[in-house]
């Protein structure tokens, strides 16, 4: 990108996303919308989209609360599309760490199996949900997300076993007083066997072990199976955010 980004109102920002940019082979950015400058809302959203198109951006994403209808309308008018409603849930850390017998900490020997599960398990995340984004890009992002976690990004990489085979995985991050479930997936041949619930219980046990006050997770409102899992595990819905994507017209699913 050689052209300078448009001047944004106070509190707004365009933030580069280096990890995602690698897979799009083009700049990926997050548009953060602050509380000021609403008088320039429509024109600024349009300017950002036009600039992204001129400079070859691969994706610009923005998240806004559902109540901000004017912001959502301005993004839509500028060419952004609503791709998901992200639901954030929390539950308190348990009073003791009790790990399910079928879940253990994973290591280098499970990376390939977990990466393969990541490639086939996800449907509702914002990359797969956006049909304008090539399916291979969405799958590459999830696979490498897992590989980076096992390489040291995650606080802990849990794997669940079923008859000696890796049935699923769960990645955690420690963020202030919360343990965050960063990514979780169950292999297609192991669903409906309680694997996801065991992985979530392991995350709850880990939260006690690291001294976190709560466990936090995000999932999509369209993912009813995931929401049911967290509801059954004692999580409470805390907030929702609408996720919008701008992608260039040349981007196409493949």
Explain the layout of strands and helices.
Layout: E1 13-16, H1 18-24, E2 28-32, H2 41-55, E3 59-64, H3 69-77, E4 81-92, E5 103-105, H4 111-121, H5 126-129, H6 135-153, E6 156-162, E7 165-175, E8 178-186, H7 195-209, E9 214-220, H8 224-232, E10 236-246
Parallel strand pairs: 2-3, 8-9
Antiparallel strand pairs: 1-2, 3-10, 4-9, 4-10, 5-6, 6-7, 7-8
Q: Globular, elongated, flat, extended or rod-shaped: what is the shape?
A: globular
Low-confidence stretches: none
CATH superfamily of the largest domain: Gcn5-related N-acetyltransferase (GNAT)
> Major beta sheet, specifics?
10 strands, mixed
Distance between the termini: 25 Å
Strand arrangement across the biggest beta sheet? 1-2-3-10-4-9-8-7-6-5
Indicate the proportion of strand residues.
25-35%
> Which structural category do the helix and sheet elements fall into?
alpha+beta
Mean pLDDT: 95
N-to-C order of helices and strands: EHEHEHEEHHHEEEHEHE
Number of helices: 8
**Tally of DSSP β-strands:** 10
Question: In the CATH classification, which architecture of the largest domain applies?
Answer: 3-Layer(aba) Sandwich
Over the alpha carbons, how many angstroms does the gyration radius reach? 19 Å
CATH fold category name of the largest domain? Aminopeptidase
- Please give the CATH class of the largest domain: Alpha Beta
Into how many domains do the coordinates divide?
2
